[in-house]
Amino acid sequence: MSKKLKAWFAAVSVVCFATMIAVLAVQNLGFLSHLETVAGDIRVAALSKPVPQSKDIVIAAINESTLTQFPYRSPVDRAYLAELVKALEAKGPRAIGIDVLLDGPTEPSKDDLLKNVIRETKVPLFISYSNSPNVVDEDQLAYLNDFVPPDLRAGANFARDPNDDSVRWIYAGETGGMPMGFVRKALSLVGIKTPVKQVEIAWRPRQDSETPPFAIYPSQTVALLPDDWFKDKIVLVGAVLSITDRHRTPLAIIDSGDAGNMPGVVVMAHGISQFLEHRSVSQTSFPLSVAITLIFALIGLGLGFLKQGPVVKFSAAGLIIAAYWALALLGYTYGIPLIPVVMPTLALALALWLTDVVVGRAERKQRQFIQGAFSRYVSPAVVSQLANDPSALSITGVRREVTFIFTDIAGFTTLSEGLTSEKLSEVLNDYLDGACAIILKYEGTIDKFIGDAIMSIFNAPLSQPDHAERAVKCALELDAYAEAFRIAQNAAGVPIGVTRIGIHTGQATVGNFGSQSRMDFTALGDTVNTAARTEGVNKYFGTRICATEETVAQCASIAFRKVGNVVLKGKTKPVGLFCPVSEAELASGLVPAYETALAQFDLADGDAPSAFAKLKEIFPDDALIAYHLKRVASGTVSSLILLDDK
What we know:
By secondary structure, this protein is of the alpha/beta class. It is 46% helix and 17% strand. The protein folds into 4 domains: 3-45 and 283-359, no CATH class; 55-276, no CATH class; 363-579, 2-Layer Sandwich (Alpha-Beta Plaits); 581-646, no CATH class. β5 (159-160) and β6 form a beta hairpin. α21 (590-602) runs antiparallel to α22.
């Protein structure tokens, strides 16, 4: 198989695999499925267009005021229900639904009265029914079967989501000995056929905060209200109490009160109204959802092939996903259906990661080879210590003060893309050979190579009382060597960049870490991160060496000039950063003039800008003067420098 064909095969495999895993994961993993559901609930609850109050359904509510009329709260007084049905029948409704379970005897005369009324009523009537063992026992079921004729029974069960116990679907019924569901029974009595399956409820958005989706009248006032309020409408009778017969709905995602936890009779009203008004949940079909997921897998594949670092790739992926989520959420208000959001997100992330793994394999192999080839650059002091004391091979660490040097070549990734492997190896070998020789000259420990970058430690494993000063002198010689190497390579047509150096002193845990089969002598702790970031900030200031105030404090014999108080990324407190000063700079008079101008920043002196402007005329090539002038031009007059990157 040709290399090109292999690449195509790998790309197709990545897209198909990412799509398949995303779809299966969301379908079968409860937390992902629930996350997809929650994203839909937010749109339904918060972003649905409001509609006017229903003109087809009214609710005769059994509320707290209703129950105060009776000597007992439950069951509802049967004589009262009988009189209510008669009063409603007189007003000419289209149908009457009683969402009250008549599953036990009360007062015989009242029971007989209601029993006769429901059999004699001429208006289409249906009554809640359930044979579920968790709702009624055998005696209750027998009573219910005797009390409610089969043709009036309506299944009162609810179809709930097992992930959050929300009522999401219309209960179909007609299975397991259950009659047609309550909603479907109501619709059948008015001539509307419904499928024998669970249909997702299209919740009726409120017209406004004061108007409920359905008119709700206290049942005890029905006889006094105008007939027109009930005529030709489906009237539902049910409890609207504060804590009884409440059911969580998807609307609870933003409202945990009455709107989100509805009385059962109101839930039924929502289900009935969507068929009367020909409304349904606007969502994409499964094939279309898979197609959208596939598209995002392709986007992930494309990002994976970008000639950029992981930060750029994954940042771009994050922006694309954020834009898509915003479109999915806000677009719902303007008619976009409930498109999936979790599946496409997962597919894009998987495809991007897999592509990065496949595409970066060759690069990683080359990097591993280079690092292995340079493993001989281990400090002789470490080798000597391990030879003299084999117990040092144990996986232990000690906390001590050390000084770190981090070096890195600017633009090396771009350089490596423009050179052949042979030329890249030649240049990098020559550079690292010379740099390592200087570090070993000052008895530093070369901890590791990260491509072209070097991390070295002073004062470990052997003590060096002058470790900070030793590291700074080493850095100055490294800088001189790296500049000479760069100039020579540039002249030969190799566009190698400057070497940036960071120096920091602090406490770290130093020792051998790993396993019995493989271990490394290294340092751990936040001091390492600070040292690395100290190297990285050189690119902001245009400098080549930066040292922290902790290092400078231990270098009395070396001159420095201050960059400023810098808040590094991930830090909250500023760190004083300094640049070591060469003999030529000391002789030029630059240092005292620069320090005077910088001090004016700290004093909020309005003359600071002009002071730096004058320095610029005298020292036009000085990077720090140019950097502070740029800050002045942007309106910043302070020695405190905030960085958003390392």
